Amino acid sequence: MCRLAVVVALLLAGCGKEEKGPPLCYVGGTMRPALEELVRLYEAEKGQKIDLDYGDSGTLVIRIEKSHKGDLCVCHDPFPNALEIKGLARRTWTVATLTPVIVVPKGNPKKITGLRDLAQKGLRLGLTDEQYSTLGHIAPVMFDKAQLRKEIEANVVTRTRMGGEVANAVALGQLDATLVWNAVAFIRRDKLTEVPIEPQFHPQPGVDAVTTATFGHIDMAAVRVAISTLQCSKQPEAATAFAEFVNSPRGRAVFAARGYSPAPDTAIGTASSSAPRPSQPK
User: Fold this and answer.
1) What is the DSSP letter of 146?
2) Residue 240 lies in a domain
3) Do 244 and 112 belong to one domain?
4) Any idea what the Cα angle at residue 258 is, between residues 255 and 264, rounded to 5°?
5) Based on the domain organization, do 111 and 171 belong to the same domain?
6) What is the pLDDT of residues 221-232, one digit of tens each?
7) Are 108 and 52 in contact (CB under 8 A)?
8) What is the pLDDT of residue 215?
9) What is the Cα Rg of the chain in Å?
10) Angle, in degrees to the nearest 10, between helices 32-46 and 249-257
11) Looking at the 3D structure of the chain, how many domains does it have?
12) pLDDT tens-digit profile of 17-26?
């Protein structure tokens, strides 16, 4: 009986104590290579392990909202705003931006030099689906600026959920060209040639913007990559420490080295945004 009492006492002593594992960071697919490198650097420097969970940004927001688990989330516009509007984000830092580019097979066999060339007859063009993709919304804006939307979209033979899928199709020779983020193109630079889109066709700051109930105000000219600490985090101090590392000059340099464009602000160590913050729900 004495031994049983001891066992019961030990079990009861453990009740109510939540075992905390490493902070969990959700990561949108585009940002996976950069975050894996940042985690390696952070673990080597700080001795703190960070767990990563991947998915497309929209799915991650839903997962956080339903599970109320996790400590951080790295995603790109418009999803940082969605985290804030839904009351899921504690604090957000902008660490980089994404720029749309054209990618073609290595060597550029179709001699594509800019956006207008995507209208040439017979071109096999792939795009991301606007139902799932931020770039899927931005592409028609650029086509309209070139006054060639009808001609370019006539060449679209497939639409995919994520940029990596359509970029891989170009690399395999199944498509002649597509539009992806510069960071997506960088990952596949050994198989793809990147063609810049002419500046006059890019979305313009303060002009090409949308406002929705789900995402608030989104400026298409500056697609943010942001890291947010989460309200549901049981380890807010550890989560904040990693977010500040990602937002440090060293962290931002990792994004720059992997083909991302710089953040639209110069402030380091403070929450930042390229657009007005939506009000928090009450």
Assistant:
1) T
2) yes
3) no
4) 40
5) yes
6) 789 999 999 999
7) no
8) 61
9) 22
10) 140
11) 2
12) 445 799 999 9
Q: What range does the domain containing 59 cover?
A: 23-98+213-257
Report the CATH number that the domain containing residue 90 is assigned in CATH.
Answer: 3.40.190.10
The reply to whether 119 and 145 lie within a common domain is yes
Angstrom CA distances, 262 to 22, 26, 78, 98, 152, stand at 29, 22, 17, 8, 29
Of the ranges 116-120, 142-146, 203-207, which one carries the lowest mean pLDDT score? 203-207
- Same domain assignment for residues 122 and 194: yes
Q: Dig out the tokens for 147 from the structure.
A: 């006054």
DSSP 177: E
Closest CA to 68 of 206, 230, 221: 230
Q: 38, 245 in Cβ contact below 8 A?
A: yes
Q: Which helix (H) or strand (E) holds 96?
A: strand 89-98
Which amino acid makes up residue 70? G
Q: Dihedral (C-alpha) 150, 153, 155, 157: value to the nearest 10 degrees?
A: -150
Task: Say if 16 falls within a structural domain.
Answer: no
Q: Which residue has the tokens 């606007």?
A: 130
Q: Is 159 helix (H, G, I), strand (E, B) or coil?
A: strand
Provide the b/e sequence for 26-63 (b: ≥16 CB within 10 Å).
bbbbbbbbbbeebbeebeeeeeeebebebbbbbbbbee
